[in-house]
UniProtKB/TrEMBL annotation:
Gene Ontology BP term (one): double-strand break repair
CDD domains noted in UniProt: HATPase_SMCHD1-like (cd16937)
Species assigned in the record: Dicrurus megarhynchus
Name of the protein: SMHD1 protein
Gene name in the database record: Smchd1
InterPro entries tied to this protein: HATPase_C_sf, SMCHD1
Classification via SUPFAM superfamilies: ATPase domain of HSP90 chaperone/DNA topoisomerase II/histidine kinase
Pfam families per record: HATPase_c_3
């Protein structure tokens, strides 16, 4: 790598977790993306790409067709689809110490590509691992593993009444993906964790699938 014998360096995951002798077998798996840096918090000089491989969660079969937010006959599903997208922002900004900012933009400028719905917030942001978790179909927010930073211990699902801004609209971790593909053909998530300078981007495309 062209490292001088007297130069210090670290090897980290894309979540900026330093690889050590103790955690090597846990963090270094086939296909994992690693950074070779001068320090854990070194700014990246160029953008990097990380491949995400996953199999559909078993809930795809076990709970298929249940609790779909647009399943009720005679109801306009679009508000429910938008509510699912907003729910991500509500969860992300729930612990903000300052102002919670959530914007919904409808973009129809063909010069930027196809029309799009953009939901923007100033929440806690997601690491690459959390984006990976979000991508897994029907992986409930209450059973996600790894870096999903949320405490839902003792959670009791509210009665089916109008929810408040502090409640969870989405429950089974499927609504966000279904909402995206109900409204359009692809999802692009750009997120910067509050405690990191790294910006992560995830693209899910019906065409790619």
């Amino acid at each position: 790598f062209g490292i001088a014998s007297d130069e210090n360096f670290v090897i980290t995951t894309t979540n900026r977790k330093e690889i050590t002798e103790d955690n090597f077998s846990e963090l270094v798996q086939d296909g994992v993306t690693l950074y070779l840096l001068q320090s854990v918090d070194q700014m990246l000089l160029v953008a990097t790409k990380e491949r995400i491989d996953f199999l559909p969660h078993y809930d795809t079969l076990v709970k298929s067709g249940m609790y779909e937010y647009y399943a009720s006959e005679g109801q306009n599903p679009l508000p429910f689809a938008l509510a699912e997208l907003i729910d991500n922002s509500l969860s992300a900004t729930s612990r903000n110490t300052g102002i919670r900012s959530i914007q919904i933009k409808l973009l129809f400028d063909d010069s930027q590509g196809k029309p799009a719905v953009a939901v923007i917030d100033n929440g806690s942001g997601m690491t690459s691992k959390q984006l990976n978790n979000w991508a897994v179909y029907r992986l409930s927010k209450f059973t996600r593993q790894g870096d999903f930073e949320s405490d839902h211990s003792g959670y009791v699902r509210p009665l089916p009444v109008p929810r408040s801004l502090n409640s969870d609209i989405s429950y089974f971790g499927v609504g966000g993906k279904q909402a995206v593909f109900f409204v359009g053909q692809s999802a692009r998530m750009i997120s910067k964790p509050a405690a990191s300078q790294d910006v992560h981007e995830l693209v899910l495309s019906k065409e790619d699938f």
